[in-house]
Specification:
Ribosomal Protein L15, Chain: K, domain 2; alpha/beta; 149 residues; elongated; 15% helix; two-stranded parallel ribbon; Ribosomal_uL15
């Protein structure tokens, strides 16, 4: 095999700077320019230099307290009206019944539960959970009642 018959190298390795004069990017300042903050190390991504106006961090409202980094509110676990057709006629729909019937998991019962109006309802039910207007109409149409606490 000759040199002109060697396969072509697809990728070159990254040039390591500051590793001696013979490396191609070595020697005195190693292609970093001269002196200053950018030469010496990493700059914080939120650094904006010396400004007359406030930086973006100072413009944000100050949030106090222990849970300032946590999300504000957890979304409710939504259940559509069509899922409630698996429940017996005349049942009182609350968290315990939904867990017992397997519609929601026991761990999920701790979060908020809300009933939405997607699908058709074929049962007469009494609902004791938060519910949307569309779902209220469908429950009342079947002769059910709403008891929101």
């Amino acid at each position: 095999m000759r040199i002109n018959q060697l396969p072509a190298i697809v990728q070159r390795s990254k040039k390591r700077i500051g590793r001696g004069i013979g490396s191609g990017k070595g020697g005195h300042t190693s292609s970093r320019g001269q002196k200053g903050q950018k030469v010496r190390g990493r700059i914080h991504p939120l650094f904006e230099g010396t400004k007359v106006k406030k930086s973006i961090i100072q413009r944000l409202p100050l949030q106090r307290g222990k849970g300032k980094m946590k999300s504000r509110g957890k979304k409710a676990l939504v259940i559509n009206v069509k899922v409630l057709n698996s429940l017996p006629d005349g049942a009182i729909v609350d968290r315990e019944l939904l867990v017992k019937s397997g519609i929601i998991a026991k761990e999920a019962s701790l979060s908020r539960v809300k009933i939405l109006g997607d699908g058709e309802l074929t049962r007469k039910l009494t609902i004791k959970l938060p519910i949307t207007r569309g779902a209220i109409e469908k429950v009342k149409k079947m002769g059910g009642t709403i008891e929101v606490a």
